[in-house]
From TrEMBL:
Belongs to the glycogen phosphorylase family. One of its GO terms (biological process) is glycogen catabolic process. CDD domains: GT35_Glycogen_Phosphorylase. The modification N6-(pyridoxal phosphate)lysine is found at residue 650. This is Alpha-1,4 glucan phosphorylase. One of its GO terms (molecular function) is pyridoxal phosphate binding. Its main location: cytoplasm. Its cofactor is pyridoxal 5'-phosphate. GO terms for cellular component: cytoplasm. Allosteric enzyme that catalyzes the rate-limiting step in glycogen catabolism, the phosphorolytic cleavage of glycogen to produce glucose-1-phosphate, and plays a central role in maintaining cellular and organismal glucose homeostasis. It is found in: Cytoplasm.
Length: 809
């Protein structure tokens, strides 16, 4: 299919034989999937090594402006299959491996998910890197190489149990350790200003703690284009010069723990000091390595902003601002004004949440003590900010927007003040930033605000994960959609084509059978692939309202118990979600879902009509199995709370119909597919804000008035759902005693109503298939290819570099 075949079948077999012999003293015929994975991984890495090198050289020689995406999380998942796809080797390698009698999927499953992220934020960063390379854009990632990824989740008696994810235990074929590009990062000590012979003041540091940051680089392979960008992840070590200071194992362990674990929470700050230290560690290492690279271009420091763009993904890397200032001031001796101008022009920032508790703040005392030079610079940024605005703006506005307020440092404020662009991640979210959450800043810097609606890579989330659908699309509309996802809209030409609708339904059925098999193997639950597969997969959080889904399930159950012969369209509810280990309430909801599942799945009155499946250990690889099999996509967060969402986009591309509140990117999905191809319900943004203003929401009133709500809620405390004495009460109280923070009870009735509509519509298979087709057809616009192209143009000012053409010339 591809003219870019880098390797023939015979060459591949020869290479494979050689590597199996060298590494394992084995033949292909006697190898296991483990050895095959390692050997194939090496072959793949070797086959892009040249392009990787050439990409770097090309960027350097042509002084190409590059962007660096700083993110404390990356969530790429497995990489073998996606690299094979990008290199045009997937079909050849699969066929060859299967000729030798192996199941290719067994080989793929050997790879541990690279899970250095919690959820959407980290997955977005990984989609962006994939898309940057695939659009030939010079953009790289910068983050932390955690020894342990996000915890592995198991259920014991229905409770979440967290196990460590030692993903590096059997090695990582994709990474390259670059010892020679290590840098030192300084912590603590005292910094004082010393007068230089020329009269100027320079900071001098004493008694600092020095740690070595070692980069591990992973190639990010562009789709069929010879571009290979770099994801650089930093790991901590003790520098040789400091060895003598760490004598005991405990002391060494303390240091090494810095990059040991990912904080398993994407919405609350925790781990405090280690987290702050992690943030400075990867920021400082990343910026130093950028500066080292820039020196190689021999360009003057005064023009660095023409060659470097730095992106602050959420506030975790906000120290990029003072760290860049430190280097420009202390190492290049630039004036404050000059350094500030360059810094602001290089930096840009994405806001990912409007939830107050998720906006990062650090105690002044902590930053002062552990990062003294950072503190001095932040203090000066803050001082100048206030001075410059005094007299121009009301004092209360200045006080609300300054960086240091009382004894806290506001990282979002630092990010906005220190950058030239602040973007939200969906239209509604960006509008809320301007009108409510960051309104004060919008008054100060209207030109800095913009929207970049999130996206997903169709390569992983359609081409790779849903091969039956991808193949059918190729046969129907040609293959151009693989490079230009908006071409998926050609599918609309088949809206009335019964044969195609039938074929689409066949692919969905195939995927449902595959998922049913997986469910049987992992949970020992039999599910009927003819039932509606209703999917909610995302981090477990109160605002995402998995509980609303559960309330509806309980209602269906009680209705069926009352009248087992009532009409009911069989449905399988599928959940995937991890709760932060310290988030008790979220864990209680997991327990409640699991106990409800056990109750319903084993009730002979219910039989096949309802099945509840909570698949453990939700991660990228699990998402890849679930999403292609989904009929219904649950995107039911309270309006204003989900900044964008991206699982909504993945599910839509795979032909699931969305059950949507008007939140995040759901609004844009509704605009593209049209109101007839989505199920919208629930409070709107305006209604939610009205409740906040008036303070007149009363969950108790709803409970008192609505017998259905009463009956469903009582099931949590009256023993109807067994084994949840504590959790049931906690949930019950959250809704009534604590007045239902996320307005579930208000949205409950409309939710049940559209769910009933879903069931009726599903019976009309032609109607359903047309909705499903429309969702796939309109999903191309949510390709992160387009999102990163807009970042490239509007924010980073980086341009594509066509290495493929150059290579052929
Ligand atoms: C896409 C994705 C997410 C984000 O899901 P939302 O529903 O948008 O929060 C989280 N985790 C994984 C593994 C994903 O693939």
């Amino acid at each position: 299919m591809s003219e870019r075949q880098v390797m023939t079948r015979d060459e591949f077999i020869e290479d494979l034989r050689k590597r199996l012999r060298e590494n394992f003293a084995m033949e292909i015929e006697t190898a296991t999937p483990n050895e095959l994975f390692v050997a194939i991984g090496q072959i793949v890495r070797a086959s892009y090594a040249d392009s990787w090198h050439r990409t770097r050289q090309r960027y350097l020689e042509h002084k190409q402006k590059q962007s660096y995406y700083f993110s404390i999380e990356f969530l790429p998942g497995r990489m073998l299959k996606s690299n094979l796809l990008s290199l045009g080797m997937l079909d050849m390698v699969r066929d060859t491996v299967e000729e030798f009698g192996f199941d290719f999927d067994d080989v793929l499953r050997v790879e541990n998910d690279m899970a250095l992220g919690n959820g959407g934020l980290g997955r977005l960063a990984s989609c962006f890197l994939d898309c940057l390379a695939s659009r030939e854009l010079p953009g790289n990632g910068n983050g932390i190489r955690y020894d342990y990824g996000l915890f592995k989740q198991q259920f014991v008696d229905g409770y979440q149990v967290e196990l460590p994810d030692a993903w590096l235990k059997s090695g990582n074929v994709w990474e390259v350790r670059r010892e020679s590009e290590s840098v030192n990062v300084h912590f603590g000590g005292n910094v004082y200003m010393k007068q230089m012979p020329d009269g100027s003041l320079k900071p001098v540091a004493e008694n600092e703690r020095i740690l070595k940051a070692v980069p591990y680089d992973t190639g990010v392979v562009g789709y069929e284009n010879d571009t290979v960008n770099t994801l650089r992840l930093w790991s901590v070590e003790i520098p040789a010069s400091e060895e003598g200071k760490y004598r005991s194992i405990e002391e060494r362990r303390m240091v090494e723990d810095l990059t040991a674990v990912l904080y398993p929470d994407d919405s609350n700050e925790q781990g405090r000091l280690t987290r702050l230290t992690q943030e400075y560690f990867f920021v400082s290492a990343g910026i130093q390595s950028i500066i080292r690279y820039y020196k190689k271009t021999k360009m003057p420091i005064s023009r660095i902003n023409e060659y470097i763009a730095i992106h602050i993904n959420d506030t975790h890397p906000a120290l990029c601002v003072p760290e860049m200032m430190r280097i420009l001031l202390d190492e290049f001796d630039l004036s404050w004004e000059k350094a500030w101008g360059l810094t602001v022009s290089m930096m840009s920032y994405t806001n990912h949440t409007i939830m107050q508790e998720a906006l990062e703040k650090w105690p002044v005392s902590m930053v002062k003590y552990h990062l003294p030079r950072m503190y001095q610079i932040i203090e000066e940024i803050d001082r100048r900010f206030v001075t410059n605005l005094q007299g121009l703006y009301p004092d209360d506005l200045i006080q609300r927007t300054r960086i240091i307020q009382g004894d806290q440092i506001h990282m979002a404020n630092l990010s906005i003040i220190g950058s030239h662009s602040t973007n939200g991640v969906a239209k509604l979210h960006s509008d809320l930033l301007k009108s409510v959450v960051l309104h004060d800043f919008y008054v100060l810097y209207p030109e800095r605000f913009n929207n970049k609606t999130n996206g997903i890579t169709q390569r992983r989330w359609l081409q790779l994960s849903n091969e039956p659908l991808a193949g059918l699309l190729d046969e129907t509309i040609g293959t151009s959609w693989r490079k230009e996802p908006t071409d998926l809209q050609m599918l609309m030409n088949y809206y009335d084509d019964d044969r195609l609708l039938e074929l689409l339904a066949d692919t969905k059925h195939k995927n449902k059978v595959r998922l049913a098999k997986y469910i049987k193997e992992t949970c020992n639950i039999e599910v009927n692939p003819n039932a509606i597969f209703d999917v909610q997969i995302k981090r477990l959080h109160a605002y995402k309202r998995q509980l609303l889904n559960l309330l509806h399930i309980v209602k269906c159950y009680l209705d069926l118990k009352d009248d087992p012969n009532r009409n009911f369209v069989p449905r399988v509810w599928i959940f995937g979600a991890k709760a932060a280990p310290s988030y008790t309430y979220a864990k209680s909801i997991i327990k409640a879902i699991n106990e409800t599942a056990t109750l319903i799945n084993n009730d002979p009155d219910i039989g096949d009509k309802m099945k509840i499946v909570f698949l453990p250990n939700y991660n990228v690889s699990l998402a890849e199995i679930i999403i292609p099999a989904a009929d219904v996509s649950e995107q039911i967060s309270l309006a204003t709370k989900e900044a964008s969402g991206t699982s909504n986009m993945k599910l839509m591309a795979n032909g699931a119909v969305t059950m949507a509140t008007m939140d995040g990117a759901n609004v844009e999905i509704r605009d593209y597919v049209g109101a007839d191809n989505i199920y919208v319900f629930g409070l709107t943004e305006e209604e939610v804000y009205r409740y906040y203003e008036k303070g007149d929401y009363s969950a108790q009133a709803i409970y008192d008035q609505d017998p259905v709500v009463r009956r469903v809620l009582n099931a949590f405390v009256d023993g109807t759902i067994p084994n949840i004495q504590r959790e049931g009460q906690e949930i019950f109280d959250s809704l009534l005693k604590y007045n239902d923070e996320f307005f579930l009870l208000k949205d409950f009735e409309p939710y049940c109503k559209v769910q009933e509509q879903v069931s009726q519509d599903y019976l009309d298979q032609t109607k359903w298939r047309k909705m499903s087709l429309t969702n796939t057809a309109k999903s191309g616009i949510f390709s992160a290819d387009y999102t990163v192209m807009k970042y490239a143009e509007d924010i980073w000012q980086i341009a594509p570099v066509n290495l493929h053409k150059e290579k052929r010339n």
